[in-house]
């Protein structure tokens, strides 16, 4: 299946060599891996139902607080090699059913139809197993021949990867009936994949595993992308590719949603719980200077997990766009409630006066 070619190394460390049948990661030998993690960072997904629509547009996220993350190369998190065009802003919220993410990052417009590596790409990664580390995508020590749901139990990470090369901006990709009927996390239409991993070399679509496939798996993500330089708002079709002119300054938007909980029975999906923290990471690929990116050449928002709080209903008042709109809508709401109160008193009066009002039981209808 085509989507298998798209599964690319993620949070992969720079070099791996085989030694007596075990994968030995270079950082263990040279001690080169270095992480000045920002442990203060925490993203909160507040309960804000009915605010956003997954369409790739960020206007509806304006009142939601986000977090600006520096993008450093995942393999060598060195300030000097920071993604130059800007930080990645990430916002999250939930509506009690689904959790939503908005990823915003500045970048000149590049798009190459059908060539994922010449288009920007993003991924989210979540801790599933208690032992799963950010570094090495779960960090299970087994090699591809030996990693499975027994030997790597507890090291599972959940990954959502969106390669936009075959996705029309503003359209929804990810979960679709065709791939979900096949029982795996693939997406033949737009390469918004639902995957899991134990380490960078043991990474599969949900439902696909070395021990055998499980047809109960699903792609549970939905997502869309957009670039601020686009002029059309009503809807693109494939024929409009490349949708915008190359090199235009602007911002990329990637918007996602997923149910808080899924029907996963295999430790391949993170299960969010309202009121409880989760751990996540985000990655960004960009064809710098027009050069196609390769799987391990990505930026990351941190060199460790970032806390994500799915918070319970917030007591803080909902902030509205402007004082004026509050006044207007507040006054209107007050007027409406006064009218409805008056109407109900009047109806009550009528009913009590006409004591002969007949009550028709439903059964006789
Ligand atoms: C491992 O995965 C296989 C195939 O999906 C499944 O049949 C088996 O029950 C799983 N074992 C464990 C320990 O999860
Ligand atoms: C599992 O699914 C993958 C992808 O569809 C396929 O290549 C592989 O042969 C399947 N494995 C088994 C044991 O059926």
How is this structure best summarized?
With 365 residues, the chain is α+β, with helices and mostly antiparallel strands. The chain folds into two domains: 309 residues, Immunoglobulin-like (Sandwich); 36 residues. It contains four helices and 17 strands.
Textual characterization of the structure:
The chain is of the alpha+beta class and 365 residues long. The protein has two domains: 2-310, Immunoglobulin-like; 329-364. It is 13% helix and 26% strand. It is built from four helices and 17 strands. It has a 15-stranded mixed β-sheet that branches. The chain has a two-stranded antiparallel sheet with strand order 1-2. Strand 6 (88-94) and strand 7 (98-106) form a beta hairpin. It is globular and about 85 Å long. It starts with a helix and ends in a 12-residue tail after the last helix. One 2-acetamido-2-deoxy-beta-D-glucopyranose binds next to loops. Residues 149-150, 209, 211-212, 214 line the site of one 2-acetamido-2-deoxy-beta-D-glucopyranose (NAG).
Element order: H for helix, E for strand: HEEHEEEEEEEEHEEEEEEEH
Tell me the number of structural domains: 2
Strand content: 25-35%
Q: How many DSSP-defined strands? A: 17
For the largest beta-sheet, the strand count, sense and barrel status come to: 15 strands, mixed
Low-confidence stretches: 1-30, 321-325
CATH class of the largest domain: Mainly Beta
- What characteristic shape results from the CA principal axes? globular
Q: Look at the structure and give the mean pLDDT.
A: 84
Rg over CA atoms: 25 Å
What small molecules are bound in this structure? 2-acetamido-2-deoxy-beta-D-glucopyranose
CATH topology of the largest domain: Immunoglobulin-like
Classify the helix fraction into a percent range: 10-25%
The CATH architecture of the largest domain comes to Sandwich
Report how far the terminal alpha carbons are from each other. Answer: 57 Å
Q: Which structural category fits the helices and strands?
A: alpha+beta
* Number of alpha- plus pi-helical segments: 4
InterPro entries: Cyt-c552/DMSO_Rdtase_haem-bd (IPR019020)
Signal peptide: 1-26
GO molecular function: heme binding; metal ion binding
Keywords: Electron transport, Heme, Iron, Membrane, Metal-binding, Signal, Transmembrane, Transmembrane helix, Transport
